[in-house]
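Tutorial, part two.
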Amino acid sequence: MDEEEYIESTWSYLSFCVEPTLYEGLRFAKDLLIASVALRMAIQYIPMPHNVRHSLSFIIGGLLLYHSIGLAIIWIFGFTLSVYILILILSLSTRKRVRGPITCLCVISFLLLCELHLINPKMWQQIRGIQMIASMKIISVAIELDRSLFKKMINPVEFFGYIFCPANCMLGPWISFHSYDQYLGVKFLTKRWIRVIAENMAMALIFLNLSNCIVPWIISDDSTKWLLAYRDAQAFRMSHYFVSSMSMVSMLSAGFGLTNDCHSEIQITKPLFIELPRSLVQVVIFWNIPMHQWLKNYVFKSCHAYGQFFAILSTYVVSSLLHGCNFQLSAVLLSIGTFSYIEYNFRLKVASALEACCLANPCTKQCEHKYKKNCILTVFLNTLFSLITVIHLAYLGVMFEASFSIQETGYSFSHTISKWENLDFFNHGLATFFYVIYLMM
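Running the prediction step on this input gives:
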């Protein structure tokens, strides 16, 4: 193929892929924008009592969900109503401190029943993300009630407005009830508001095209298996950045997450810190910042009294169960937890032995290491660990590439094992090697 034919075929591929992708992305964003902007306009220009604002949030969010998932919204509504009644009954009992643990147990049990028995796999895949966001909100309310962060039990209108808020009921991110209540009362409109929404929309569409068109085109199907693994994992990461950017669009359109001078004060993910990672520990933090904060505040801190190991184990178990009870997600999350734990402790010993700033997290400016971050030894070590992290990301992310039919019904045990078997279980062996070295140091 000569150069002219190559350019023509490349342009044809991109034009046939980019245009439909942009159309689908904008079509998906349309409903989120309409619902969120409608809520913001009503709050901005119509004086209304406290409970009316929450009612409006519930009604608009409910209409958005019904338009998106149809009658499956019954599962969301019934789940929310049942848990509110449970929290109310527990609040009337003498042992009010058990609201958090009992609510968490009931919520996770319900999610497991839905996935394994009550709902068919295709419908569950459609509403699983919505149920996960609702579950995180519900558990956070129950635990904050236990911690006496509310002056009184929140009423049903406030509760349903929070769960069904159109700003984040579809894609997230999770925000606390207090943040939601605060943003619901803020009144502002500036030209910068439009610009911030447009910037995040542009980023979302760029990430969507990178996932669907650009990344698969750059690395062809005849590449080595590790390049293919990196391609598939990166395409999955780009789709995650698209969802994160689109959730930012939804939040900002409703006026949530903005300061009085219309600057964003929330961040969902940090793509640069993931694509050029310092460590797997930081990838875990920056992959979904609100999710990380939720797990740290409501799971890790709640379980820390029983020991650090139990708290860490509980955090990964709860995260796995919230994302879905299937082997693929559990295997990935367990592997991430294991790999990051080994990396953190191994780098701690290396930093101590060589007196270099090569910890999993960056050192403070006043650290006592002899070789600071700009020294040749430190740069070499951090670069080496970064490359290992990139390999981990390719290894862990490759299994999320699958046919549409598999994505619709969920990933199976055989799909997961076959992906890692194709890569000779290399990273599990690498992690074991580093752990043995760590024990010998």
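The chain is about 75% helix and 0% strand. In part three we will examine how such features are distributed along the chain.
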